Amino acid sequence: MRKALIALTALALLAGACQQNSKSSDNTSDSTGESKVAKLDVPVPVFQADSAFAYTAKQVSFGPRIPNTPAQEKCADWLINNFRPWADTLYVQRTTVIGPKKEKLPCINIIASFNPAAKQRVLLLAHWDTRPWADEDAFDKTKKLDGADDGASGVAVLMEVARQFHAQKPEAGVDILLVDVEDYGAKNNENSFCLGTQYWAKNPHVKGYKANYGILLDMVGARGSQFYMEGASQQYAAGPMKMFWDVANKQGFSDYFRYENYGSTITDDHIYVNTMANIPTFDIIAWQANGNFAPHWHTQNDNMDVIDKKTLKAVGQTILQVVYTQPFNY
């Protein structure tokens, strides 16, 4: 993933103001005036971390999921074949996007919709492609990487979530968006990243598509991960983000979900969902208090050795808790 980290004091202050404003709301309706779903007293499925781990490993087994490679097509087919029986409706967007060197890149976005008629909706998204080169590697920056954490882990969590949605339908509407060609960009051009998301934001799977808010998963599977409150997420989606963090902490996942805000913003898919699709979206992404990503980021060490079932569980169980019991209580 592209991921420039920029310290922005003003953004942090604005995020804090947004957070204060969200607390003063009566939380009875969304920005369109639609009534929200109240807290629900329903049993919450148990997120199976073993399944998420296996889904991660299966993606890695195809090889790096790079545009214009057999691994891209094989993994896409596998994802589609898994999501089709789980979802109420499945959409597949096949298009061509233009890379940073003007190269044509096949792009496959996959959208699984649950309760498609529900007006109140949550968008869950992750990218499923792999960066074509390990350009942060200390030894060989031209080598390919597995992308076990950066890409596969987020998709794996959403696969297990979708499996649970199929077994026990939530009351809220949910759309799972798997975006392609996220990580092909050039460091000197931030907008050359997240090309699948940019395409979807301009061409949603349903005309006029809206969701109350979105949750982006990116690097959510590594051992010892910590998820800090990212700056742009607080700017655009402070209320839903704090709700999610509160639920995670109440579930016993405080070691993972940290309330600290170091004033850093990350160029990730949520930026384009916020600014182009106008859906308030926050990013769950592992990074360190010093503003750096984990040492395995964009290196050959991003493989199955870094994936931890406890981290997958912390993220996935919190998603299920939020969606089933208080999807719009923020």
TrEMBL record:
Residues 1-20 form the signal peptide. Residues 109-323 form the Peptidase M28 domain. It holds the Pfam family Peptidase_M28. InterPro entries: Peptidase_M28, QC/QCL. GO terms for molecular function: carboxypeptidase activity; glutaminyl-peptide cyclotransferase activity; zinc ion binding. Keywords: Acyltransferase, Carboxypeptidase, Hydrolase, Protease, Signal, Transferase. Gene3D superfamilies: Zn peptidases (3.40.630.10). This is Zn-dependent M28 family amino/carboxypeptidase. It comes from Chitinophaga niastensis. The lineage of its organism: Bacteria, Pseudomonadati, Bacteroidota, Chitinophagia, Chitinophagales.
